[in-house]
Model the fold of this input.
Amino acid sequence: MSEQDSAAARAIRERYQELVTKVDTFFHRVQSRYGGAMRCGAGCTACCQVRLSVTALEASVIREGLASLPQEERARLASRAEQAPPGACPALEADGRCAIYAWRPLVCRSHGVPIRHREPGGAAAVSACEKNFDGGAGLPEVSPDCVLDQTTLSTMLGVLDAAHADARGTPRGERIRLDTLLTENPLGGEPL
Ligand code: SF4
Done:
C-alpha cells in the first residue's frame, strides 16, 4: 500500500466515524423521546445473540481498537471468543458488556430503534427489537423522524466501504467475522 493510499484509507475511516456519530446521535434522540418504550441499556444482550460479520472498513476500525489494548487483554478476548457459545456474539462479556463497545459496528449501534426495511416482496415495513415499543404494537405512533431507514444506512456504509477497499487496493465487498477479528494475531503467525 502506498503512502497516498494509506492517507486516503485513513480519510475514509474518518468519514466512517462521522457516520458512526450520526447513528449514535440518532439513537440518543430516539431514546430521549421514547425511552419509556425502550429497554436498551447496559446488561441487555437481546441483540447480541448472534454471530456477526462486518465490512472490511468496520473490521479495520475494530482492528485499530484491538491493537490499542495491552497484549494480555487481547489474549483474554481471543480466549473468550474461542469459547463463546455458538449462538452468542464472541465479543459479549459474561456480565453482558460488549468487549468492543467503542468500536462496535453500525448494526449494533442501530439495534433498538425503529427500522424501516424492505420485506422479501418489496413492501416497506418498520420493526424494532421485540423488547421495545410494546413488542411492536407502539411502532405506528412513532414519529417518522425517529425511524432509521436501513437502505439509506446500508448504502452509505457500502459507499464508504467500497472507497476504503479501493484506497487499499483490496477487493470490494469483503466481510470479516467478528470471531476472526478477535482471535487473529496482529503480528501474523499463530492466532492469539
Ligand atoms: S459487537 Fe458488541 S454490541 Fe455487537 S453483537 Fe457483539 S457484543 Fe453485542
Summary: The helical segments are 3-34, 56-67, 71-83, 106-110, 150-168, 178-183. Strands lie at 53-55, 115-118, 124-127, 148-149, 175-177.
